Amino acid sequence: MLSNEHPALSLPQEQSLHMPIEDRPGSLCKDRSVPAPARRSSHRILLVDDESEILEGLRTMLEQAGYQLTCTTSLQVALAAITRETFHLVLTDLYLGGDDLGYRLAEAARACKPSVPVILLTGRPSFAGAHEALRSRVAEILVKPVDSSQVLTACRRTIQESELTRRNQELEAQNQVLTAVLPRAIEAKDPTTCGHAERVVHYADMLAQRCGVNREDRDSLRLASLLHDVGKIGVPDGILTKPGPLTQSERALIEQHPQKGYEILEPLSYHENVRTWVYQHHERWDGKGYPNGLAGEEVALPGRILILAEVYDALAEPRSYKAAWELPRIVGYFRDQAGRHFDPDLSHLVANGLERMGGRFFASRADQLF
Ligand SMILES: [Fe+2]
Fold first, then answer.
1. Other beta carbons within 10 Å of 296
2. How far apart (Å, rounded) are the C-alpha atoms in residues 286 and 306?
3. Where are the beta strands (DSSP E) in the chain?
4. Residue 306 C-alpha to ligand 1 middle, in angstroms?
5. Both 305 and 211 in a single domain?
6. How many Å lie between the centroid of ligand 1 and the Cα of residue 327?
7. Per the structure, how many domains does the chain have?
8. Planar angle of CA 222, 296, 204, nearest 5 degrees
9. What's the gap in Å between 266 CA and the centre of ligand 1?
10. 191 C-alpha vs ligand 1 centroid, how far in Å?
11. Global pTM value
12. Cα(301) to centroid of ligand 1, in Å?
């Protein structure tokens, strides 16, 4: 039983109910005798208790706190309501009369899309009950008697946590579009580059760790590595997959992809470094790269790392126009291109590491490198 000692949960005699709330005329909970709350929340709560007086006490308290309530004493009515309406929280008694248990409602709430958090009220806590509550992923169990501050705190906290979780899930879904779907779309243009972006992320991050690049720049570098060829979406497939040499006009089209990538990524307004390093990933240390012929440290260290990591993968993997290079040939290339295509320190670091350790140079932990 709820504590009737607390004024918020004790009912004046004239408000006690003589019939189930859902049997009243109108919808489930339309009694307007309760004073309107000062500040009405947009949060909707499904409140279920088979004892009408407790239900009414909770309803009064929660409405006064600003929540919008749908109330019922019946599990069946609650199950129908949760499939029909949108709620931010279910607050239900565990024992709802007969064999009806609040767990059934908890499972229905969990199955909703998005799922609805549940607070369970029980007067008979037990280990088995706690286990079942965990299994049903009940957000919180309140043991009767409870007072109004306990209930209000639990409702507020559970709704906040649920909204935070939902927001994080939305951000995660948006992030997946950026980090999983977009790279796949790029690689669909040229199947021979399958897995290229993910490998470049790994190589670049390993090198960045080795060079002491700070965490924030490493985060940006991983994203730039993943998206570095996004501008190829604007290049005709026939040119990207053409075996053999390209004509001058075909090459000019391909060389537009860093600029196109920079433009495509314009909405990433908080990631200017990502855009910049994508834009610069075909520059060279000697200034003979494109699109702007930047030289030396005009490209920041993370950008120079991306330039090298991208070429390493292009050499080590087969492409439509070439077979995969053997390791000694790659080592020779990095030695030869130190100070030409690549930052000389980086180039020697990679050449030495590959020579000494082979493919293990790009092991998953920086401290395994040497
Ligand atoms: Fe590229």
1. 14
2. 16
3. 44-48, 68-72, 89-93, 118-122, 140-143
4. 10
5. yes
6. 22
7. 2
8. 20
9. 18
10. 15
11. 0.59
12. 18
The closest alpha carbon to 120, from 40, 156, 302, 129, belongs to 129
Among 106, 131, 166, identify where a domain stops.
166
Which tokens in the block code for residue 325? 């290079």
Establish if 86 belongs to a structural domain.
Answer: yes
pLDDT digits (tens, 9 = 90+) for 282-292: 999 999 999 99
Distance 225 CA to ligand 1 centre (A): 10
Give residue 105 CA to ligand 1 midpoint distance, Å. 54
196, 317 in Cβ contact below 8 A? yes
Residues within 5 A (CB) of ion ligand 1: 229
- Measured distance CA(111)–CA(170) in Å, rounded: 18
**Structural domain span for residue 217:** 190-368
Residues 13-45 have pLDDT tens digits of 333 333 344 444 333 444 444 445 446 778 999
Distances in Å between the alpha carbon of 251 and those of 33, 39, 149, 220, 248?
A: 77, 64, 70, 29, 5
